[in-house]
From TrEMBL:
InterPro entries: CBS_dom, CBS_dom_sf, Peptidase_M50, UCP006404_Pept_M50_CBS. Binds 1 zinc ion per subunit. Residues 250-307 form the CBS domain. It is found in: Cell membrane. GO terms for biological process: proteolysis. Its main location: membrane. The chain crosses the membrane at residues 21-40, 46-65, 107-132, 138-158, 214-234. The keyword Lipoprotein does not apply. This is Zinc metalloprotease. It comes from Nocardia tengchongensis. Keywords: CBS domain, Cell membrane, Hydrolase, Membrane, Metal-binding, Metalloprotease, Protease, Repeat, Transmembrane, Transmembrane helix, Zinc. Its cofactor is Zn(2+). One of its GO terms (molecular function) is peptidase activity. It is a multi-pass membrane protein.
Length: 393
């Protein structure tokens, strides 16, 4: 599920963090649940203060879980786009796919292992705190934090994609068979089953308890089911595209804008006479660094004048919008499905210089053609027969 408008929260270990507005609901829910759990341990004011702090500590634990995935990924050469906090917790957005089963397994296990470790730390702290104040709110908050972290680790290890346990299943099957796509499809099918089961359990809980406590489980199950469906769809697409690379469908040697240009230079160049809507922006070494669309020159809050540098108007390229020329096309499409805001992918040579561009339309065309059993790009198809059937007059 793509999460768009987010509030930036800075960087940790070089990884961008952001929060979607729905994360506020999560903090509120955690506070409310914890305050109910702490009832009777202290005065109302102290309970609410402990509940807010406990909820924020839990959010920090969720972030630590995601950071663990992202840091292990970065160590194995996988670029990390960002970490987002939202209604159902956190999500690490990776810009590359793991290249081997062992990396896949390590990235997947890092999160639940961190949650377990945090659970153990919170339990130990609770044990120390219990010596001084056995029934106090601090001890109770620490026990709650420890329990939730352990539950999180166990829940995330349920064996279906897109949960961490699903990634573990994929990695293990991939390692055994050597066939990543089949492993991915199996993990997604198990994910569909897990999602449906959780939705059904949530529904049963509503029926049995006559309250809406099961609604959250239903929502979670439904989200997992939908996410597993799109994973299965993507696995099918990757299978059809086989080892077609992004370089095969790109537009080579595209017209690029130099980052140092002024608006006047841009408008005076021959770029104005092309039919393109978006242009890649390259630095002095020819490396793509940003994209410029006509709409960027019309931004209402920026005073666009002829001497303004193009680099001040262009939008920086996200890691997911840069792909090596030999990168599998299926991976690039998977990323754009997950991030519909990507309007151009800059394809680069191994030395980092711009080799070509691929637009969202090019990707959609490749998807449609592959679904019909045609080669992803028209020029890689065999020559048409000498005589084509013409209209019958
Ligand atoms: Zn995880």
């Amino acid at each position: 599920m793509p999460i768009r408008s987010t509030i930036p929260l800075g960087r940790v270990a070089g990884i961008r963090l952001g929060a979607h507005w729905s994360a506020v609901v999560t903090v509120g829910l955690f506070t409310w649940v914890l305050a109910a759990y702490l009832r009777g341990t202290a005065s109302t004011g102290i309970i609410w203060a402990a509940a807010v702090l406990g909820a924020l500590a839990l959010i920090a634990c969720l972030l630590a879980h995601e950071l663990a995935h992202s840091i292990v990924a970065t160590r194995h050469g996988i670029r990390v786009e960002r970490i987002v906090l939202w209604l159902l917790g956190g999500a690490s957005e990776l810009a590359d796919e793991p290249r081997d089963a062992r990396t896949d397994l390590r990235v997947a296990l890092a999160g639940p292992a961190t949650s377990l470790l945090l659970g153990a730390v919170a339990f130990s702290a609770a044990a120390v705190s219990a010596v001084f104040s056995p029934g106090g709110p601090v001890t109770a908050t620490l026990i709650w934090l420890a329990t939730v972290n352990v539950v999180l680790a166990v829940f995330n290890m349920l064996p279906g994609a897109p949960l961490d346990g699903g990634r573990v299943v994929r990695a293990l099957l991939w390692r055994r068979s050597g066939d990543r796509l089949r492993a991915e499809a199996t993990a997604a099918r198990v994910g569909q089953f897990v999602g449906m089961t959780l939705t059904a359990l949530g529904f049963a809980e509503i029926l049995a308890s006559h309250n809406f406590g099961g609604l959250w489980l239903m929502l979670l199950g439904w989200f997992l089911y939908t996410a597993a469906n799109s994973e299965l769809m993507l696995a099918g697409l990757r299978h059809r595209l086989g080892d077609t690379t992004i370089g095969e469908i790109m537009t080579s040697d595209p017209i690029a804008v130099a980052a140092g240009w002024t608006v006047e230079q841009f408008l005076g160049s021959n770029l104005v006479y092309t039919h393109h809507r978006v242009f890649p922006v390259v630095d002095a070494d020819g490396r793509p660094c940003a994209v410029l669309a006509w709409a960027d020159l019309l931004r209402p809050r920026t005073r666009v004048h002829p001497g303004l540098r193009v680099s001040e108007l262009a939008r920086p390229l996200r890691p997911a919008a840069i792909a090596g020329i030999d990168a599998p096309l299926g991976d690039a499409i998977a990323r754009t499905v997950l991030r519909p805001s990507l309007d151009i992918i800059a394809v680069v040579h191994p030395n980092g210089r711009l080799a070509g561009v691929v637009t969202a339309t090019d990707l959609a065309l490749a998807c449609d053609r592959s679904a019909l059993g045609l080669p992803a790009h028209p020029t890689s198809a065999p020559a048409p027969p000498a005589t084509l059937p013409g209209p019958q007059l």
